[in-house]
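quick one
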Amino acid sequence: MSQADTVELSDEVQETFVLHNRLFQRYAINNITYFVPVDEDETLRLRIQHSVLTMMFDNRFIFPPINTPRRVLDCGFGTGEVRGIDITPHHHNPDEGLENLYLDIDDLNMPFQFPSNHFDLINSRLVAGGINSERWTGYVRDILRSLRPGGWVQMVEIDFNAQSDNGALADNSALRQWSQTYLYAMEQCKNPRAPRRLGGWLRNAGFTDVDERMIQLPMCAWSDNQREYDIGAANQENVRMLLSSLAIYPFTHYLSMSITEFHVLVAKARTEAANPALKTRLD
Ligand SMILES: C[S@@+](CC[C@H](N)C(=O)[O-])C[C@H]1O[C@@H](n2cnc3c(N)ncnc32)[C@H](O)[C@@H]1O
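structure w/ S-adenosylmethionine:
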């Protein structure tokens, strides 16, 4: 927090409020930065999601060919990993601190204050819900400037447009309705299509050696392939939780959905997401 090269935020980042039985960070909500709760349920979900992605990536965290990075920046550190920036301190347990770990509370929508040519590796995973639409190109340029020559960035995002692998999910299903409503609510200020645009943005900013992969993430255990079946089984709880935590604030606050309508939609969407016959997936 007191590192000289980030803009320090005041104690207001600690302030929280309860809405619909979930705990939110006032700063992130007031500044239209990030709408997801900061309570223990969400911390748990991030840990489950992390283990799902770890399975998905065959126990690798970092794919660029970099052996002994000296300086690493983790954008949106969540439950914590090297030098991280996050708008909320709430998911991090200070007892897990390491001597060479600095976790700064800062907003990725603000221009980076880090020196140029500084980091060997920058990790940016699942921050699209908190990056303003018009910030993306500047964010990618800031990342490029902060990397030393030869440095790497790894970006991972999920497209929350729920699909069915066998076309069995009807357009009027609750899960499709959830997706369409989520994309609509988010695109008022964020870019829910960012996951599909990262490669283009990186190239336009001047990155070279850009490698893009689209990986399908099963929402429950339906695949004939054992590895994908196991990933889907592990992801089912993450999906159950995210259908509520990602959407509860945008749907009820920005789209004026009543909390009862919200719970009914989420309950139906959860049943569909967990139905192996529908072969649901996220890309
Ligand atoms: C879905 S979590 C992902 C956490 C971690 N990167 C991971 O992949 O497990 C998104 C994190 O990004 C943080 N975040 C979102 N928008 C942000 C912003 N504008 N500035 C800083 N942190 C942000 C959130 O507070 C949250 O901890």
